[in-house]
Amino acid sequence: MDNQGVLAVISGFSGAGKGTLMRALLERYDNYALSISATTRAPREGEVDGREYFFKTREEFEQMIEHDELVEYAQYVGNYYGTPKEYVFSNLKAGKDVLLEIEIQGALKIKKKFPEAVLIFVTPPSAGELRNRLAGRGTETPEKIAARLSRAAEESKQMDDYDFILVNDEVDRCVEEMHALIQAMHARTENHKTLIEKIKEEMKQF
Amino acid sequence: MDNQGVLAVISGFSGAGKGTLMRALLERYDNYALSISATTRAPREGEVDGREYFFKTREEFEQMIEHDELVEYAQYVGNYYGTPKEYVFSNLKAGKDVLLEIEIQGALKIKKKFPEAVLIFVTPPSAGELRNRLAGRGTETPEKIAARLSRAAEESKQMDDYDFILVNDEVDRCVEEMHALIQAMHARTENHKTLIEKIKEEMKQF
Lengths: 206, 206
Prior knowledge:
- Chains A, B: Keywords: ATP-binding, Cytoplasm, Kinase, Nucleotide-binding, Transferase.
- Chains A, B: Belongs to the guanylate kinase family.
- Chains A, B: Its EC number is 2.7.4.8.
- Two copies of one chain form a homodimer.
- By secondary structure, chain A is α/β, with parallel strands linked by helices.
- Chain A is built from eight helices and nine strands.
- Chain A has a domain at 7-35 and 96-203: Rossmann fold (3-Layer(aba) Sandwich).
- In chain A, helix 1 (18-28) packs across helix 7 (171-184).
- Chain A binds chain B through residues 121, 123, 125-128, 131, 146, 149-150, 152-153, 156-157, 159-160, 162-167, 177, 180-181, 183-185, 187-189, 191-192, 195-196, 198-200, 202-206, and chain B through 120-121, 123, 125-128, 131, 146, 149-150, 152-153, 156-157, 159-160, 162-167, 177, 180-181, 183-185, 187-189, 191-192, 195-196, 198-200, 202-206.
C-alpha cells in the first residue's frame, strides 16, 4: 500500500545510546510511533499498562501466540516478551513510522517475516568508547559491565545482517541521520505500488 | 571499503525532469560527480570531449569492451554508447557520489553487475502530467511526443525493478529528496565493513 509508514527495527549494543536516540526522534518529529511490547512479567513500581508494556497474564499471552497476534516473541527468565501486531500495523497503515527497539535475534526474526522492515544497528565508533561509556555511568559493578561487554562481543558477530549501521558518536547528528534515513525509506519502490499501477494503467492509452 | 561514494543510477520517462534534478544536485552540493558516457558518434557543434561525452573511435571503443573497461554498453543507431569504469570507480573510491543517468536496460545491467548501485526512477505524479509537460515544451511535433509517450508506456512496465521511486511534482522538493536519499545510502552495512571488522576485532578482548 502507498503512504504506509516505515517499520524501523533498532538494535545496538547496551550503552550505544538507542534509548536517547529514539526519545529524541519522538520529541522532535510527529511521524513516529514507538512500538510497545507485551509481557507476562509483573509491572514494576511506576510502570503503566500501555506505556512501558502491555501487561498480560500467561494465559492471555499464549492466546496471542495461538492467534498469531505477535510480530515476534521470546521467553526470558521465565517470562514472555513479544511485539503485538495490532499496534504496529495499525500505526503503519495510518502512515506512522514505527520504531521498534529489540535485540538481535528478535530483529532477525522480524526481517524474515516482514522483509520490508528496515534493520538499523546503532554502534559507538569503537569498542573502547563503548567500554568508557558503560564505565562512565558509574551505576554498575565491574561484573555487570563485563557481562554487558561480553554480550556486545557476541552481538557484534551479527552486525552484518543489518541493513544500516549508524555510528552514534554525536547524539544530535545521529538523531538527524536516523530521521533522514527512515524518511528516505518512504521512497522505496514497494511503497509506491499503487502509484506504479495507476501510471501503468493510464499509460495504456498512449 | 568504508567511506566509498554511492553509485546512484537514475532513470525516468523522457520529460520527467531528470536532467534538471541532476544539474541542481551538482550545483547545490560538492559531493557529486556526473558520470560521462563514451560514444563513437561524432561530436556535435559545441560538444567538448570529456564534458558531454568521451568521444572514441570504433576501434578504441571495441578495445574498451575487450579490456572490460565499461560498466555497461549498448549500440544505438549504429553507434556505441557506454559507461567507462575508470571514471566511475575512481570517483566512488575518492568518496564522491556518482550520478549516472541511463535508460532502463542499461540500469538493470548495472544493478546485476554491481548490486551496490542504487536504482532511482523519476516519474511525474501521473501519466497525464507527463503528456502535459511534453506538449507544453512546444518544441516537438505531435508525432515525436506520441513516440516519447509510447516509449514511456513501455518503460513503465519495469518501474518495479528499481529500488526507489521519486515523484517529481515539485522540483526543489524532489532535488532535496534525492539528495537525502543518496546520503542516507552511506549508512548501508556494506559501506561499513571496515568499521564492523575493527569493532569485532577490538571486542575479542572483552
